[in-house]
């Protein structure tokens, strides 16, 4: 199989904070249409891995290749532009704007000859907003201000605000934290829709949810890859059992 089947290649990724290796020689490859879930105890380095991929934290060593572009040499905004979207744990939607407007302002903006922002409010944008709103279960509340959405709906809206930028790789930090059981089920459905044409990396603690979404799982421990594979594989791995149950 050729190299091109991988969307993301993380190799030997390492970051030290004052000599402490938060991520230590980590390697993994993500294919197109994957939902890769990163699990592991608190402090394992999960958030730092996403910070390194999206350029928020600079790697001490190693490489992150996204479609043959070396992300470790790029700025955060260039990485977004390359097609990597990142959602943080707390939803950050514009409460005073409607669902429609939140999606509209997230639509990739063109710049006019004067360098000013030029919003493209045309039929194409509107149909894209409609399509995204259906995907994130918010098509019936497009004119509602975001302030009136539930916590779960705000999380979906923020995912929609990323989707409208058409990233090929989406990274989500605990997307179902604080959600109801029903919202968790719909979020699993949402992620399964998303990976039909892109890949997702998710940090998650809820193992039931992991089972519903993961194509593969990475188990991190002390900045290193403890185990990698299907959910069934990592659950049966003695090293994983030791870390989760051994102390
Ligand atoms: P996880 O997301 O798995 O809970 P983190 O990636 O947040 O773990 O953190 C991994 C380790 O790196 C922790 O011990 C944390 O304190 C440390 N760490 C993360 N970011 C920094 C930083 N900017 N400076 C110093 N230490 C950090």
Overall radius of gyration: 19 Å
Give a count of the beta strands, DSSP E runs of length 2 or more. Answer: 12
* Unreliable residue stretches: 111-116
Please state how the strands of the largest beta sheet are arranged side by side: 6-9-10-3-11-12
Q: What is the N-to-C succession of helices and strands?
A: EEEHEEHEHEEHHEHEHEEHH
CATH topology grouping: Rossmann fold
Q: Which percent range fits the helix content?
A: 25-40%
Tell me the fraction of residues in β-strands, as a range. 25-35%
* Tally of individual domains: 1
State the CATH class.
Alpha Beta
Report the principal-axis shape: globular
Number of helices: 9
End-to-end separation in angstroms reads 41 Å
Can you walk through the features of this model?
With 247 residues, the protein is of the alpha/beta class. The chain has one domain (3-245): P-loop containing nucleotide triphosphate hydrolases (Rossmann fold), CATH 3.40.50. The protein is 34% helix and 26% strand. It has nine helices and twelve strands. It has helices spanning 46-53, 76-82, 99-106, 123-135, 151-163, 181-194, 207-213, 231-236, 238-245; strands at residues 8-17, 20-30, 35-39, 61-66, 69-70, 84-87, 110-111, 117-118, 169-173, 199-203, 216-221, 224-229. It has a six-stranded mixed sheet, with helices on both faces. The protein has a four-stranded antiparallel sheet with strand order 2-1-4-5, covered by helices on one side. It is globular. It starts with 7 loop residues before the first strand and ends with a helix. Residues 111-116 have low confidence and may be disordered. It binds adenosine-5'-diphosphate. The site of adenosine-5'-diphosphate has 10 residues, from α1. Adenosine-5'-diphosphate binds next to α1.
């Amino acid at each position: 199989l050729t190299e091109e089947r991988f969307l993301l290649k993380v190799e030997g990724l390492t970051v030290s904070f004052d000599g402490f290796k938060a991520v230590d020689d980590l390697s993994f490859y993500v294919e197109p249409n994957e939902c890769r879930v990163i699990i592991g105890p608190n402090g394992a380095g999960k958030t730092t891995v996403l910070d390194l991929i999206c350029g928020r934290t600079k790697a001490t060593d190693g490489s992150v290749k996204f479609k043959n572009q070396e992300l470790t040499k790029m700025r955060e905004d260039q990485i977004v532009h390359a097609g990597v979207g990142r959602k943080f744990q707390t939803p950050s939607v514009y409460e005073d704007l409607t669902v429609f407007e939140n999606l509209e302002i997230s639509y990739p903006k063109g710049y006019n000859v004067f360098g000013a922002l030029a919003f493209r409010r045309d039929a194409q944008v509107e149909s894209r907003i409609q399509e995204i709103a259906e995907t994130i279960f918010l098509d019936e509340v497009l004119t509602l201000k975001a302030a009136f959405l539930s916590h779960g709906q705000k999380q979906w809206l923020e995912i929609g605000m990323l989707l409208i930028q058409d990233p090929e790789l989406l990274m989500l930090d605990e997307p179902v934290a604080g959600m109801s059981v029903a919202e968790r089920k719909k979020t699993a459905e949402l992620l399964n829709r998303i990976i039909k044409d892109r890949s997702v990396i998710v940090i998650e603690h809820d193992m039931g949810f992991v089972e519903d979404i993961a194509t593969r799982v990475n188990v991190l421990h002390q900045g290193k890859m403890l185990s990698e594979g299907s959910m069934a594989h990592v659950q049966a791995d003695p090293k994983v059992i030791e870390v989760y149950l051994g102390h």
